[in-house]
Amino acid sequence: MKTKRFFFLSLFLLSILQISEAQEADFSKTSQLLDSLEKHNKYMGTILLAENGQIKFAKSLGYADTENSIKNIIETRYRIGSISKMFTSVLIFKSIEEGKLSLETPLADFFPDIPKSNQITIDHLLKHRSGIHSFTNDKDYLGYNTEQKSREDMLQLIVGGGSDFEPDSKGEYSNSNYVLLSYILEDIHRKSFAEILDRGIVKPLKLKNTVIFDEIDTKQKEAKSYTYNGGWVLEKETHPSIPMGAGAIQSTAEDLVLFAEGLFGGKLISEHSLTQMQEIQEGYGRGMFSFPYYDKKSLGHTGGIDGFRSMLGYFPEEKVAIVTLSNGLNWNNNDVLLATLNGYFGKEVQIPSFLSYEVTSEMLDQYLGEYVSEQIPISFTFVKEGNTLIAKPSGQPDTNLEATAEHQFEFTAVGAVFIFDPEKGLLTFKQGGGTFQYQKK
Questions:
Q1: CATH class for the region spanning 361-440
Q2: Domain 28-345 indexed as CATH 1.20.1290.10
Q3: In angstroms, rounded to a whole number, what is the distance separating the alpha carbons of residues 253 and 75?
Q4: Which of 57, 177, 269, 333 is the most buried (most CB within 10 A)?
Q5: Which residues of 61-86 are buried (b: 16+ CB within 10 A; e: fewer)?
Q6: Nearest in space to 258 (alpha carbons), one of 320, 315, 205, 326
Q7: How confident is the model at residue 16 (pLDDT cuts 50, 70, 90)?
Q8: Residue 353 pLDDT exceeds 80
């Protein structure tokens, strides 16, 4: 579950690096890095790595509730966002195995009012190949996401969003797909999605902390979520009636490990169904993605909802599960994952210094103004507030930037780097392996 924001890339990819021989696991530097992240207000959340069901590394950072100084612990419950889609996909495959559905079942059997529903199948919904517009991409989404919505309300939004492309012509991420799958599950089982989840996954695996979330209650070990803007700022709470099976589940790191091991261990669906979930077409599986790490491969999903960011990955060959659940992120989550995996596989862990570059309000004047690019349609307007440079991407929320070198600023949570050449009025923007050139208007 995501909101439309240019800085947040659609998929979370672990870097493929030069292959080297594995060494013995050593999490000492991983732990040092995480301690430093906590000290410098870069990360709040829980990280856990397990092998064959045995926890090899677990650490919690920061606060579940900053206002009341309630610390995150291993048992803290987080909203897991789009990791929920893995659960929904499993429930669909269980229903297929029960003879209630097939991958070829047309959407029109359930929702004929959706554009091109007679051409869209369950398979297209699972693999994000339906063409159905994602309601979370609309500008007004953040204006209603905290409000309860009925099924009729959501269907009206999805029908009104129309179709972005011909079904099965390509893959493109859409939260609408998995909301519809939730409704289909409710129709064929004649139960609520929460009941279907509990009966189909939670009880068979004896999960203790995996449910459809409600209003956050920190007394029940539930974390609030935050964004960083000179300090941790509390985020609003999305109502669960909106994301449904696309992102309405809360869980713990330990429960997610049990889920991954149960899924890949054959406790939930057949080997044939699991193989179908793992089939990747144009980057999309059926409820999961493939994440490379050196010469190895994990399967899983990422998630983002409100201020929560999460990732669940499972290495089938090594029987290793890794989970990161964050309720406050001011750093690149990819670096946290790599540091944990590097510690386990005996590779080098880099510990940054977190030294900031001092700038004055007067120094920021040379960067202010609007910058445009011929490469991408996103423009940036830069303003200042005191000694802080603020980026205002077109159609996106404002973002405070951190000065890291002369003429260089970063938004480390997503790996965005801005390098200015004030004499020429140029800006180089880097993110996710891409480099884009901008000119000041």
A1: mainly beta
A2: no
A3: 8
A4: 177
A5: bbbbbbeeebebeeebbbbbbbbbbb
A6: 205
A7: very low
A8: no
